[in-house]
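Before relying on records like the one below, remember that each one covers exactly one chain. Contacts with other chains, cofactors or solvent are not represented anywhere in the record.
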Amino acid sequence: MAAAISIGKSLGYGFRRLCVFVKGFRLPGVISRETEVNYSVYSAPSFPEFKSAYSLDKIYPNSGLNVTTIPEPPKNSEEKFSGYIPIDKLKISYSRSSGPGGQNVNKVCFFLSVNTKVEIRFHLSTADWIPESARNKMLEHYKTSITKEGYLVVNSDKTRTQTLNQADCMDKIRCMIREASRSPPEVLPETRQMLKARQDRASSMRLRQKRIHSSLKKDRQSPTLHDI
């Protein structure tokens, strides 16, 4: 960085006009119109590069901070789902949407994709990126969403764009896997005892109502010779 210093005429009372021109910065044009001055050029001292305490390399010291490199996807273990869904293991199809805007949104909006409805399906039994325990629970809980060939089908026409609908489908799949991966809550002994007492009370009330109803039906019958 270079700078030029110019000393002008005396302004009186021992003061002089001092103008500085720094290369690379825009300063008022009055500096270039100064006349009858002598210029002396010098090199400004170099200072170390300033870095804030909140710079990214200090907040994330273990990160490369290189956006051009594609990070490796997290690996799904056999016991825990990391949230990563491999796109190459899915079958994605698009169709006309019946969501917001109806069929008209697929024809008139030139800045949107024509087919906005997204359908994602994958073979659940052979999906090795899902823990086996979660797959077994999903086969039982989502029977109505599984085809005869064993494909789990998820679709979305929530918005008017393919990208957002596809993201909504992926979020649905993650929620389904995490719900199936969740272990059942532990039941305390006090809770079991309370539930058993409720069941016994409900059974006794049901038997009592049956006896009352039976006696009412018996009283409606006409008397017989045996009763006389």
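The first strand starts at residue 2 and ends at 12.
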